[in-house]
Amino acid sequence: MAHAEVHDHNTPLEYQSETGRLNILGFWVFLGAEIALFSTLFATYLVLMYRTADGPTPHELFELKGVLIETFLLLTSSFTCGIAIHEMRRRNRKGLFIWMIITLALGAGFLGYEIYEFVTYVHEGAALGTSAFWSGFFVIVGTHGLHVTMGIAWITLILIQVARRGLTPQTSAKVFISSLYWHFLDVVWIFIFTAVYLTGMVLHNG
Amino acid sequence: MKWDEFFVTGDPLIYGADVSIGLTVIGILFYLTYFKKWQWLWREWLTTVDHKKLGIMYIASAVLMLFRGGVDALLMRVQLATPDSKFLDAQHYNEIFTTHGTIMIIFMAMPFLIGLINVVIPLQIGARDVAFPYLNAVSFWTFFIGAMLFNISFVIGGSPSAGWTSYMPLAGNELSPGPGQNYYLLGLQIAGIGTLLTGINFLVTILKMRAPGMTLFKMPMFTWSALITMIIIVFAFPILTVALALMTFDRLFGAHFFTLQGAGMDMLWANLFWLWGHPEVYIVVLPAFGMFSEIISTFSRKVLFGYKAMVWAMVIIAGYSFLVWVHHFFTMGQGELVNSVFSITTMIIGIPTGIKIFNWLFTMYKGKISFTTPMLWSLGFIVNFVIGGVTGVMLAMAAADYQYHNTYFLVAHFHYVLIAGTVFSCFAGLIFWYPKMFGYKLNEAIGKWVFWVFNIGFNVCFIPQFILGLDGMPRRVYTYSAASGWGGLNMLSTVGGFLMGIAFLILAYNFYYSFRYSERENTGDSWGLGRTLEWATTSAVPPHYNFAVTPTVTAMDPLIQMKRDKQDVKPKIEDIKKIHMPDNSGVPFFMASFFFVAGFGLVFEWYWMGIVGLIGVFITLIIRSFDKNEGYYVSEEEIKETERLTV
Questions:
Q1: Interchain pair A161, B265: CB under 8 A
Q2: Do B368 and B300 contact (CB within 8 A), yes or no?
Q3: By the 8 A CB rule, do B552 and B211 touch?
Q4: Where are the domains of chain A?
Q5: In terms of CB atoms within 10 Å, which of A87, B218, B268, B588 comes out highest?
Q6: Contact B198, B233 (CB under 8 A)
Q7: Can you tell me where the transmembrane regions are (chain A) (predicted)?
Q8: B610-630: average pLDDT
């Protein structure tokens, strides 16, 4: 319910409309629900951590190199996403586009490596149905990957809207919200890196 | 798959249901076509984003589901009325008790309460609508479609039969083959999306859209209860989402989360289910507490006793609701330390609930009480709910629970909590706010009949079950031997069940009778005793923009304050300004329909259909994202005309 309101020019564009403010708060609440969702997945993964049955153990298959590249790509994308929002607040549409497209490219690179990793594991005999452990692994990492995929598609659609309509209180709120989502995925990945990959390599050793 | 595997065949009851479903559908189609109502249906209801209309649709769906779940209950009671009965076979009985439990919790109790929250909360906080009206429509339609998907299972493909808790490995592919259990997983998943969105929507609405002056501690108690419920929803429903998804992976894609093979862990399901399931109990009972608080205060003509204690009690309950889940399976092998911890947390959660009971009693103390039907239901609630609560504390003691668990004692306990708590509140709230929705009251004389027949029936049905449980009658069995000696009490219980059924029919008649004969209300304060803003509208049924001028709140129970100040609720003509409102949209309806296609495809493992449905869902999301949805303005002239203001 947008009202024409008076703002001092320090109010960021995305907070200038009533709808924008409500949507941003609503999205924070949604991220709260997402935390509950990923917490449940983490709990499930940790409960099933040693339940590899006859399948391979993570220690046999995990390779640090690919995971480090994925981590590097995704963490950098969070940084570039932050710059994109900074450019948006400077009302620099071109800067927003350049940095957002870099962000999406890094995200796509992350996804590429993840898909390659999944394919490798399947070839080495670890798939969703191999054991409880691998079910847990593929679902938690896959859920994150699905979120990244959706994020890329969603941000692309929003950029098209910005290209068509310019930076308005409506479009900038959408860009800002999608950036919150993108940073959130980054945070989740840090936990996945720790709880899945590092513990998988260390705790399963021996 | 052959057609006789697709449709459920071989049972005369099912054929009867097929015929009645067919006739009902034809009847509705005929009515809509003959009276040229299609356009009206589309414009006024299917595309609406008005919180009041969505609330009414929620409640109407919930009453239908109450009928369906009630018929399930009566079929079970007929089967159990006599020993060694052949009325239902074991499989059919299992299906019916599974659908009874699932429908009553997910598709009756929650939508009924969410419906009342939808109608009342925005009015009670002086808002034009909810924060996200479009999302509200998405919530309703995904709930409705989830419910329909679940409900068609008994004529197409077969119903789930692993109980509403769907414990593994019973609910796995080996022991529950076929599409039945998939209906449970997909139906609840789709409806769960709607519930989560409702949680987000009302949380933001209550936090951000209150009328000026209404600080958190001036909010009506029903609003408080809704706020806390929404917080529980936001953190509990994702757990259900994950649990359902994992079981879906187990059943459809051969994963090993809860299976016996592949080192899966069946108890993980029980834990995840109740990690959601116990907060769910409070999701369906806290709004009930809120409504009883409003009703008892209104008809005692007194301010609610212990307002702050009430609020903190609910906050504590919300926190503890996440810390008691193991008490649902004390007997399933955790060891004494874990059981002791959860035994204690369970007893602690009884304390804030007890505080609330005393607050209601003290609210009535020295009050000038009007014994209207909503008040009667509230009084009935206090008495019956205490029975449920006390037996709950008995069950909370882990060692004693080994005796009570899996017997009819437990069944009687949770029916005393859920019927006396939730169902009574749904009836009380529906009758109380009925004039707000339709502009006339339900007939009070008939309403009193409903109350007494239902109450007597309820106690006749469930008190014998306490005794049967203590006598060792296990739950979840489809029959028992004559030698057990349980026949007499079971017959009595069945009689009570049918009394509740009769009460439901009288209620249905009351809907009709009041529609025809009730006097139409001409003020917003239909009971004459209103305390909160929903009664401060100028007409009995508020216009779609709710308040012509947003009210300013100076005290708790703002309408009482306005009455004291002799302040007129009618807005001043010079204050009227144009009002911005959201556009109607057909997209939520189509989005939910695509969810149905996707869900139905996955139930039968027709993956092409699942993919088509999901693509449809994404297309509707994109359409919505590109829609500018700027809304429209209600002009000053229109508002003046609606409010009958003249210069």
A1: no
A2: yes
A3: yes
A4: 13-203
A5: B588
A6: yes
A7: 25-47, 67-85, 97-116, 136-160, 180-203
A8: 92
B442: left (phi over 0), alpha (psi -120 to 50) or beta: beta
**A13-203 CATH:** 1.20.120.80
* Residue B264 CB contacts under 8 Å (≥ 6 apart), including other chains: A48, A51, A132, A135, B168, B250, B256, B257, B258
The alpha-carbon gap from B265 to the nearest alpha carbon of chain A, in Å, equals 8
Distance CA B422, CA B283 (A): 10
Please name the helix (run of DSSP H) or strand (run of DSSP E) that holds residue B527, with its range, or none.
none
Provide the β-strand partners of residue B156.
B7
Q: Which amino acid is at B207?
A: L
Predicted local distance difference test score (pLDDT) of residue A10: 77
Phi/psi of residue B520, nearest 5 degrees? -80, 135
Rounded to a whole number, what is the distance in Å from the CA of B582 to chain A's nearest CA? 7
pLDDT tens by residue, B434-470? 999 999 999 999 999 999 999 999 999 999 999 999 9
Give chain B's mean pLDDT: 93
Count Cβ atoms below 10 Å from residue B201 Cβ, excluding itself.
25
State how far the Cα of A59 lies from the Cα of A133, in Å rounded to an integer.
12
Q: Which residues in chain A are closer than 8 Å to B189, comparing Cβ atoms?
A: none
Asked if the B36-585+629-643 domain carries CATH number 1.10.3720.10, the reply is no
Domain ranges within chain B, ordered by starting residue: 36-585+629-643
**pLDDT at B532 > cutoff 90:** yes
Please state, in angstroms and rounded to a whole number, the distance separating the CA atoms of residues A194 and B153. Answer: 43
Determine the 3-state secondary structure of B172 from DSSP. Answer: coil
ipTM (interface pTM): 0.94
CB pairs under 8 A between A and B: 122
**Count of residues for chain B?**
647
- Residue B19: CB atoms within 10 A of its CB come to 10
Nearest chain A residue to B127 by CA distance is A1
Residues forming beta bridges with residue B633, ordered by sequence position = B580
Chain A CB contacts of B634 under 8 Å are none
Report the alpha-carbon distance of residue A198 to residue B235 in Å, rounded: 28
Enter the pTM of the model: 0.95
Q: Determine the Cα–Cα distance for residues B292 and B425; give it in Å rounded to an integer.
A: 7
In terms of Cα–Cα distance, which of B322, B302, B125, B132 is closest to B222?
A: B125
Q: Specify the amino acid at residue B183.
A: Y
Residue B482 CB neighbour total at 10 angstroms:
10
Q: Which residues contact B595 (CB under 8 A, 6 or more apart)?
A: B142, B145, B146, B190, B193, B613, B617
Residues of A in contact with B253 (CB under 8 A): 128-129
Residue from the list B199, B265, B580 with its beta carbon closest to the beta carbon of A2: B580
Residues lower than pLDDT 50 in chain A: 1-4, 206
Per DSSP (E only), the strands in chain A are none
Angstrom distances, CA of residue B405 to CA of B46, B90, B282, B475, B569: 45, 21, 21, 9, 55
